[in-house]
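Supplementary Note 3. Input sequence used for the single-chain structure prediction.
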Amino acid sequence: MAKVSVYNTSGKVVEEVELNNALFALPSNDSLLHQVYVVLSGNLRQVIAHTKTRAERSGSGIKPWKQKGTGRARIGSSRAPHWRKGGIVFGPRSNRNFIREINRKMRQKATLIALSEKIRSGKFLMVDAFTFPSQKTQEFDTFLKALQVSHRGLLVALDIREKETERMSRNVEKVVNTLAVDLNAKQLLDKEYLLISKQGIEALQARFADWNK
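The predicted structure, written as discrete structure tokens, is reproduced below.
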């Protein structure tokens, strides 16, 4: 069984728990992680860059000068690509689509492999409960310092009932919050540490209860 230390909100180890090997001790699979990461990243990509073709540029459609007899190069439109302010050939367009599909079992397995890697590397931090006296951001920051964890590389996975903790931690710079039921491989790979409570673990176990059936 995968063993994980459980901390209290003072940053001290209070117990060790054993997690289900079928969920939290999967072997490494870098190929699957890479494939899922690329798909999830592409699905989040916002296509902003957009260039105009010669049909979309402003300008007259009149032939600038006659075809022959001027000694100048022949030209049919002032919106030609080789002219200043002309259209762009093969430029980026906003109608590009980077969305790709990946099946549910692959996404689930990639998430569990990423979780297993966090446990093996000692970057999986589990707290007994997110219970703070006054629910203030400074308390959460002090808690992270007690754990000796940099908030710049921290992902906090919360249960739906832990909204107060989400309000505490969202103002800590670069801390990323997510619901345990929405946790995915990209989030886990983007951040060095994962912080989760026992309630969050229960939510994860319920979510992946039948993933390999």
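Residues 2-45+100-207 form a domain with the Ribosomal Protein L4; Chain: A; fold (CATH 3.40.1370.10). Helices lie at 21-24, 30-44, 104-120, 137-147, 163-169, 185-190, 198-207.
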